[in-house]
Amino acid sequence: MTARVSKSLYIKTYGCQMNVYDSDRMAEALAAHGYNRVDTAETADLVILNTCHIREKAAEKVYSELGRLRRLRDRREAEGQSGMLLAVAGCVAQAEGEAMLERAAFVDVVVGPQAYHRLPELLARRAREQGGQIDTDFPVESKFDELPRQVESSPVSAFLTVQEGCDKFCSFCVVPYTRGAEVSRPAAAVLAEARQLVAAGAREITLLGQNVNGYHGDGPDGRTWSLGRLVRALAEVDGLARIRYTTSHPRDMDEELIRAHGEVPQLMPFLHLPVQSGSDSVLEAMNRKYTAADFLRIVEKLRGQRPDMALSSDFIVGFPGESDEDFAATMRLVEQVGFALSFSFKYSPRPGTPGATMRKQVHEDTKSARLATLQATLDAQARAFNEATVGRVLPVLLERAGRHAGQLVGRTPYLQGVHVEGRGHAIGDLVQVRIDACYPHSLSGTVLEPDPGEEIAA
Ligand code: SAH
Ligand code: SF4
Ligand code: F3S
């Protein structure tokens, strides 16, 4: 591969925010080799599918997309146009490895999440050698060290991966196998990247990790820093108005982090804290290592620090052995907490995980019925939460242009999308907005003109 010959790169990203972040990093690494990112596969020289393996449906989508791309490539070649390299990255690449090249021999490169810094080399090898190239190692060198960041412009709300991998081995989950062991980046590297992002236009940073609150990075003072400590240091970064973090595990919700919610104004009063189930026996079988009561205690402590704390969560229904009583316990927990936003799934047995071979798998129909019951309540809670903000004045960070001329879209501290008439305001402004109406997926509001000299809290 020759640098400076301009080629086009299309990346399609599936799965979690970590994949979104990784896609940007891959694009940056390939930019140094002449690749410009484009937003369609149609004429791209290189297409990367950055994939997700979390549920069966997510993984199957990848193979159907690969089939579509293969037909596109054949058509282009038949029409005498340039060819297309096809790479698969992410968690399906890691989980399938060689099997992917057996099932889809037309794929040029298969690269796992810890080997992205080797992508240019893999592409060069593909140009020299016949057949698909594969790298699903967990190398000793960190991809973060090998992929220096070059942020020229940042969205107002940016992602920053601080921790990767998982040692928790929940019995339903593939992540420990696809992402490897828990690794935290040094705090100094995180702070340097945050400053770069802010200089490039970010006003909000969401710290990412499969277990972000399990963060334990080397601090510049020679000590190990927790996430709470890191958040406090980030709050010192000039120009950074808002800090968020995701995804947290209830087990790692320590006192320092909970206190930070009360003491660090930049830390938003919204937390995604997946509970999965409200039944202690299911939680135990899932290897979550907390009880429903533990979860409720954490919520209480968080609300003790920030009475306006809003929570979102993930739920799995139909985990092996889940009885009607177990499911009823989940419904009770939902009623007790009141969630602002939620994601709920039918249990999907994943090859290689302990759950997949457990006896007492739950029937699909039962899973569907429970999911419908749960989602009806969760949807009603989300609606009630959003409706309760109508009439309130909330700080909104304006993030992007809306669909109509002059319209801007921003977010409240509680991650709700709000449409406003932009008049005199710009993307990146933090404004006070009176919420006027609530729609199924967003709110609308009116920007209030600040009193001269008024400081707007994040
Ligand atoms: N690290 C996070 C979750 C990452 S996966 C945590 O510990 O909570 C995101 C969500 O996908 C999980 O919270 C879970 O609800 C869901 N999920 C993971 N594996 C699944 C499976 N096998 N079947 C159904 N849902 C699953
Ligand atoms: Fe998966 Fe559990 Fe690790 Fe979350 S904590 S990534 S659910 S194994
Ligand atoms: Fe999916 Fe991998 Fe993220 S399995 S949810 S892309 S860590």
UniProtKB/TrEMBL annotation:
Cofactor: [4Fe-4S] cluster
Main localization (coarse): cytoplasm
Domain TRAM, first and last residues per copy: 387-449
Catalysed reactions, semicolon-separated: N(6)-dimethylallyladenosine(37) in tRNA + (sulfur carrier)-SH + AH2 + 2 S-adenosyl-L-methionine = 2-methylsulfanyl-N(6)-dimethylallyladenosine(37) in tRNA + (sulfur carrier)-H + 5'-deoxyadenosine + L-methionine + A + S-adenosyl-L-homocysteine + 2 H(+)
Positions bound to [4Fe-4S] cluster 2: C166, C170, C173
The keyword tRNA-binding belongs to this UniProt entry's keyword annotation: no
Coiled-coil blocks: none
GO CC list: cytosol
Keywords: 4Fe-4S, Cytoplasm, Iron, Iron-sulfur, Metal-binding, S-adenosyl-L-methionine, Transferase, tRNA processing
Enzyme class: transferase
Note on cofactor: Binds 2 [4Fe-4S] clusters. One cluster is coordinated with 3 cysteines and an exchangeable S-adenosyl-L-methionine.
Annotated InterPro entries: Elp3/MiaA/NifB-like_rSAM, Methylthiotransferase, Methylthiotransferase_CS, Methylthiotransferase_N, Methylthiotransferase_N_sf, MiaB_methiolase, rSAM, rSAM_horseshoe
PROSITE patterns per record: MTTASE_N, MTTASE_RADICAL, RADICAL_SAM, TRAM
Localization in the cell: Cytoplasm
Domain MTTase N-terminal residue range list: 7-128
Domain spans labelled Radical SAM core: 152-384
Entry EC no(s): 2.8.4.3
GO molecular function: 4 iron, 4 sulfur cluster binding; metal ion binding; tRNA-2-methylthio-N(6)-dimethylallyladenosine(37) synthase activity
Residues reported in the UniProt entry to bind [4Fe-4S] cluster 1: C16, C52, C91
Role: Catalyzes the methylthiolation of N6-(dimethylallyl)adenosine (i(6)A), leading to the formation of 2-methylthio-N6-(dimethylallyl)adenosine (ms(2)i(6)A) at position 37 in tRNAs that read codons beginning with uridine.
Family recorded in the similarity comment: Belongs to the methylthiotransferase family. MiaB subfamily.
Subunit note: Monomer.
NCBIfam families noted in UniProt: miaB-methiolase (TIGR01574), MiaB/RimO family radical SAM methylthiotransferase (TIGR00089)
Protein name as catalogued: tRNA-2-methylthio-N(6)-dimethylallyladenosine synthase
Native species: Marinimicrococcus flavescens
Highest classification ranks of the organism: Bacteria, Pseudomonadati, Pseudomonadota, Alphaproteobacteria, Geminicoccales
